[in-house]
Amino acid sequence: MAVLPIVTWPDPRLTRPCAPVGEAAGDPDVAQLAADMLETMYAAPGRGLAGPQVGVLRQIFVMDTGWRSGTPCPRVLIDPELLWLSDDRATGPEGCLSIPGLTTQVARARQVRIAWRDLTGARHQALLDGFDAICAQHEWDHLQGIVTLDRLAPADRAAALAQLAP
Ligand code: NI
Question: What's the average model confidence in pLDDT over 138-147?
Answer without folding.
Answer: 98
